[in-house]
Amino acid sequence: MNVCIVGTGYVGLVSAACFAEMGNAITCVDVNPDVVEMLSDGRVHIWEPGLEELVQRNYAEKRLTFTTSLQEGIEKCDVVFITVGTPSSEDGSCDLCYVEQVARQIGAVMTSPKIIVDKSTVPVGTADFVTSLVQEELDKRGESIDFAVVSNPEFLKEGDAVNDFMKPDRVIVGTENANAAAVLGELYAPFARSREKLIVMGVRSAEMTKYAANCMLATKISFINEVANICERVGADVRDVRTGIGSDHRIGYEFIYPGVGYGGSCFPKDVKALIHTAHQYEYTPELLEAVDNVNKRQKKRMAERLVEYFEPQGGVEGKTLALWGIAFKANTDDTREAASLSIIEELTAKGMRIRAFDPVAGEKVKDRFADNDLVEIVDEQYAALDGAQALMVVTEWHQFRIPDFDRVKKQLTAPILFDGRNLYNAATMAEKGFAYFCVGRKAD
């Protein structure tokens, strides 16, 4: 099948590479010529395990091509996917400006029937909006060309996106058009050989399903963090509580890891967007608003505990914190809405110096902090420790799970460790002589 994918960001490039891997001819369109040139040279601008090899192989075998020309991209395609960014506006709404641009361009240049697929995360009603834009452009040209707009939301986890695409839990297709549903079913058939995974529903239901899924997962994270904060006050250990409630199959263990809150490109944006949509329809989504508020608070919780610890010692001003982890989670270079940024902002505002390390995202954020003299991004894990008054672990990278604690203890001015991911055992840390603070457990 000939497929055009507009946008080579996180969703677009993963989708393109995986579709190409199954033998389809994929043309990727991006407005940024530097990105197109980089991809054509076999270099990937997104850090995602397994993606670069997939792109290189399918490009070499000519199943995957890159261009800046939308007209070239859709000329021979059967299906065109819209996978451009949909960032949050200041009021929390989803900014559809890039989707609108692509929809208008498709209507302006298409010369044959198309199935247009919204794969970007978009609010309910976007398919109708895209349909009106494409039709408007066709009317301007005096053309009558059949097309259908379909919702096909993505459910990819950063850090495991290739595997998620190759082995999806489900494939949601929102359309009333039987032919469009059949074509999408054929396109996704290689990814569902073990069982039927295609779920066809109304387009607005498909758009809503994406938001509902992410908001449910975000709710579980905020819930366990709320419980963790209560545990710290009543003398319970949230890790024991998690084991107890997770054994109930109705709850399960996934997404109930206490920590520093959720971040990234999806959960924060999607929770805010669904809140905004609800208000547009004169409904107050109290639960979702609480989920968002708990998460905002949780991102700063470890910073607050650190400030409380050092308050009797003259405060944090002039002291240095070694910070391990900047990405919002492991196996990605994505720092959007990362808790590390909230922690750094909170502590540097009080005059504390931050020496931070991240194995992947470090280089990416150096420019971001170039004007902040209190922040230093280092290139080696243990280099962050020299002379620091404490260590805080913010991202659960594997290399942080069993560090050389003797070296950590030696390089810090005092053995003080704030564990934002509950990576370590409190009893073990006590044996090693650390003052140890984690999430959901009162410090001994």
Automatic annotation (TrEMBL):
<dbReference type="GO" id="GO:0003979">
    <property type="term" value="F:UDP-glucose 6-dehydrogenase activity"/>
</dbReference>
<dbReference type="Pfam" id="PF00984">
    <property type="entry name" value="UDPG_MGDP_dh"/>
</dbReference>
<feature type="binding site">
    <location>
        <position position="121"/>
    </location>
    <ligand>
        <name>NAD(+)</name>
    </ligand>
</feature>
<feature type="binding site">
    <location>
        <position position="329"/>
    </location>
    <ligand>
        <name>substrate</name>
    </ligand>
</feature>
<keyword id="KW-0520">NAD</keyword>
<feature type="domain" description="UDP-glucose/GDP-mannose dehydrogenase C-terminal">
    <location>
        <begin position="322"/>
        <end position="426"/>
    </location>
</feature>
<feature type="binding site">
    <location>
        <position position="269"/>
    </location>
    <ligand>
        <name>NAD(+)</name>
    </ligand>
</feature>
<feature type="binding site">
    <location>
        <position position="86"/>
    </location>
    <ligand>
        <name>NAD(+)</name>
    </ligand>
</feature>
<protein>
    <recommendedName>
        <fullName>UDP-glucose 6-dehydrogenase</fullName>
        <ecNumber>1.1.1.22</ecNumber>
    </recommendedName>
</protein>
<comment type="pathway">
    <text>Nucleotide-sugar biosynthesis; UDP-alpha-D-glucuronate biosynthesis; UDP-alpha-D-glucuronate from UDP-alpha-D-glucose: step 1/1.</text>
</comment>
<dbReference type="GO" id="GO:0000271">
    <property type="term" value="P:polysaccharide biosynthetic process"/>
</dbReference>
<keyword id="KW-0560">Oxidoreductase</keyword>
<dbReference type="InterPro" id="IPR001732">
    <property type="entry name" value="UDP-Glc/GDP-Man_DH_N"/>
</dbReference>
<dbReference type="InterPro" id="IPR017476">
    <property type="entry name" value="UDP-Glc/GDP-Man"/>
</dbReference>
<dbReference type="InterPro" id="IPR036220">
    <property type="entry name" value="UDP-Glc/GDP-Man_DH_C_sf"/>
</dbReference>
<feature type="binding site">
    <location>
        <position position="336"/>
    </location>
    <ligand>
        <name>NAD(+)</name>
    </ligand>
</feature>
<dbReference type="GO" id="GO:0051287">
    <property type="term" value="F:NAD binding"/>
</dbReference>
<feature type="binding site">
    <location>
        <position position="210"/>
    </location>
    <ligand>
        <name>substrate</name>
    </ligand>
</feature>
<feature type="binding site">
    <location>
        <position position="158"/>
    </location>
    <ligand>
        <name>NAD(+)</name>
    </ligand>
</feature>
<dbReference type="InterPro" id="IPR028357">
    <property type="entry name" value="UDPglc_DH_bac"/>
</dbReference>
<feature type="binding site">
    <location>
        <begin position="255"/>
        <end position="259"/>
    </location>
    <ligand>
        <name>substrate</name>
    </ligand>
</feature>
<feature type="active site" description="Nucleophile">
    <location>
        <position position="266"/>
    </location>
</feature>
<dbReference type="InterPro" id="IPR014026">
    <property type="entry name" value="UDP-Glc/GDP-Man_DH_dimer"/>
</dbReference>
<dbReference type="Pfam" id="PF03720">
    <property type="entry name" value="UDPG_MGDP_dh_C"/>
</dbReference>
<comment type="similarity">
    <text>Belongs to the UDP-glucose/GDP-mannose dehydrogenase family.</text>
</comment>
<dbReference type="InterPro" id="IPR014027">
    <property type="entry name" value="UDP-Glc/GDP-Man_DH_C"/>
</dbReference>
<dbReference type="InterPro" id="IPR008927">
    <property type="entry name" value="6-PGluconate_DH-like_C_sf"/>
</dbReference>
<dbReference type="Pfam" id="PF03721">
    <property type="entry name" value="UDPG_MGDP_dh_N"/>
</dbReference>
<feature type="binding site">
    <location>
        <position position="263"/>
    </location>
    <ligand>
        <name>substrate</name>
    </ligand>
</feature>
<feature type="binding site">
    <location>
        <begin position="155"/>
        <end position="158"/>
    </location>
    <ligand>
        <name>substrate</name>
    </ligand>
</feature>
<dbReference type="InterPro" id="IPR036291">
    <property type="entry name" value="NAD(P)-bd_dom_sf"/>
</dbReference>
<dbReference type="GO" id="GO:0006065">
    <property type="term" value="P:UDP-glucuronate biosynthetic process"/>
</dbReference>
<feature type="binding site">
    <location>
        <position position="30"/>
    </location>
    <ligand>
        <name>NAD(+)</name>
    </ligand>
</feature>
<comment type="function">
    <text>Catalyzes the conversion of UDP-glucose into UDP-glucuronate, one of the precursors of teichuronic acid.</text>
</comment>
